[in-house]
Design brief:
It is built from two helices and nine strands; from the N terminus they run ααβββββββββ. With 232 residues, the chain is mainly β. The protein has a single domain, classed as Protocatechuate 3,4-Dioxygenase, subunit A. A hairpin with a 5-residue loop joins strand 5 and strand 6. Bound molecules: fe (iii) ion.
């Protein structure tokens, strides 16, 4: 009997000692920034950390927060989208087309949408957004315009292009090259990356601020990225 009383006393002490420490890890409450009235209303869903895991490319909470121009986080002055090297494979004169997929292209479909806005969160209409990328095997077409093309943003600054998830090639992680040219002539040259790709950390020009947000779709992936450019 004494043994039972002793055990009960020990248990009581342990519960008392452990209780308060549970509150120590309470995360800070996130700050929600309301969009300015001039910001475009971006309806594309923002990836949440509660989303189910998906194969490469996948999305993470960090990808969401790194996309500084993401819809509703556009608070002036917004940070300019980082510029990144053009690389050796740019070719001027790409065709205007909403889909880079033709009969010669195989791979995992990727629909990329987003907005072009200025640092004061105003939409940029008629921005020319030129994409070029490797195919699923990591090869560029340097003869023709396979997986090359451009679109224009609409009056709200929105753009959309359909393509495939690019393949890897030696020394680089998955990426899509892009040039965003405003009607005033400013050109941003950069590259977009995909979250949760192991080779991101081995790519010496990778920049987490250039991660797209990715969601699984029935026939591939949907991705979003918003470009912040200099006012013209
Ligand atoms: Fe490249």
């Amino acid at each position: 009997m004494y043994r039972s009383i002793f055990l009960a006393a020990v248990m009581t002490l342990l519960i008392t000692a452990c209780g308060p420490s549970a509150a120590a890890g309470t995360p800070p409450t996130p700050t929600v920034v309301a969009p300015p009235t001039t910001a475009p209303q971006i309806s594309t869903p923002v990836q949440s950390s509660a989303a189910p895991a998906t194969p490469v490319p996948t999305s993470t909470a960090s990808a969401s927060t790194s996309n500084t121009a993401s819809a509703l986080a556009c608070t002036a002055p917004a940070q300019l989208t980082p510029a990144l090297t053009e690389g050796p494979y740019f070719k001027a004169g790409s065709p205007e087309r909403a889909s880079l997929i033709d009969s010669t292209v195989t791979g995992t479909k990727l629909v990329l949408t987003g907005y072009v806005v200025t640092t004061d969160c105003k939409p940029v209409a008629n921005a020319k957004i030129d994409f070029w990328q490797a195919d699923a095997q990591g090869n560029y077409d340097n003869q023709g315009y396979r997986l090359r093309g451009h679109v224009f943003s609409d009056a709200s600054g929105r753009y959309q292009v359909t393509t495939i998830v690019p393949g890897l090639y030696p020394g680089r992680t998955e990426h899509i090259h892009v040039k965003v040219q405003t009607p005033g002539g400013n050109v941003l040259t950069s590259q977009l990356f995909f979250p949760d790709v192991a080779s991101n950390q081995r790519d010496n020009i990778y920049n987490a601020r250039l991660l797209v947000n990715v969601q699984k779709a029935d026939d591939g992936y949907n991705a979003t990225y918003n470009f912040v450019v200099r006012p013209q």
